[in-house]
Automatic annotation (TrEMBL):
Organism annotation: Microtetraspora glauca
Source organism, top-level taxon: Bacteria
Protein name, as recorded: VOC family protein
Family annotation (InterPro entries): Glyas_Bleomycin-R_OHBP_Dase, Glyoxalase_6, VOC_core
Domain VOC: from-to ranges: 125-239
Length: 240
């Protein structure tokens, strides 16, 4: 039995505004979160929620992970870009080349995401959220494959990707060079133990795979805060 990926969490200076943006882009429903944030519930096969959690910290550099949104046609891509801009996104330059067929945007809090062109074969069988694209090592791709029990669907030139057996987005890692970590990531995973599983047993299993327990000043909370082999934070809750 393996951990369940329950949510992708965004640190947000204005959780409600950020949640409304992503709800508008994705067409997902929002509900109140027990930790003073906002949760978005998937309306497709994504398989995990999005949580926008309050944070006073400002964004200082590129995120370690970002969404790649798919398109069925050039018109569909243009409509997604236009809808995102209308909701509060903006165009940004991350060094993309003119011949590349994806559009790079940032949400209202500066979190990067891409709208991919219709000819992308790697994401051809994926839904609207085609991938969660991450800066990370081959080792961390292997770690998350074991942690979640998701098979590798790509493992070439130190680039890796995994995908749930139930479908949904791929999670990809670009391999070296991996940008040095300069502070807490603004996006992190929330995991839960397997059904009827024990939190401490799952924490021990993740440590055996290469994770570490860390202290980010969380105090006494129901979640255990950990870091993967690349140092990226994630949480293990007591249950789903």
């Amino acid at each position: 039995m393996t951990a369940q990926l329950v949510a992708l969490c965004f640190d947000a200076n204005d959780p409600l505004r950020l949640a409304r943006f992503w709800a508008g882009v994705l067409g997902w429903e929002t509900v109140n979160d027990p930790h003073d944030g906002i949760t978005l519930l998937p309306s497709d096969d994504t398989g995990f929620r999005i949580r926008c959690l309050p944070s006073q910290e400002k964004k200082t550099g590129p995120n370690q992970m970002h969404f790649d949104l798919t398109s069925t046609s050039l018109e569909d891509q243009q409509q997604t870009v236009a809808r995102s801009l209308e909701l509060g996104a903006r165009h940004i330059d991350v060094g993309q080349r003119p011949e590349e067929d994806h559009v790079v945007l940032a949400d209202p809090e500066g979190n990067e995401f891409c709208v991919i062109g219709p000819d992308n074969k790697f994401l051809a069988d994926c839904g609207f959220i085609g991938a969660l694209s991450c800066d990370g090592s081959q080792e961390v791709g292997y770690f998350w494959s074991e942690a979640l029990g998701w098979p590798l669907v790509w493992d070439q030139n130190q680039e890796t990707a995994i995908r749930s057996p139930h479908g949904g987005p791929k999670i990809t890692w670009g391999g070296p060079p991996v940008a040095p970590k300069t502070g807490k990531n603004r996006l992190h995973f929330d995991l839960a133990p397997p059904t009827h599983g024990d939190q401490q047993a799952e924490v021990d299993r993740l440590i055996s795979l290469g994770a570490t327990r860390i202290d980010i000043g969380q105090g006494e909370v129901g979640q255990v805060v950990m870091a993967d082999p690349d140092g990226n934070e994630f949480c293990v809750s007591t249950s789903r």
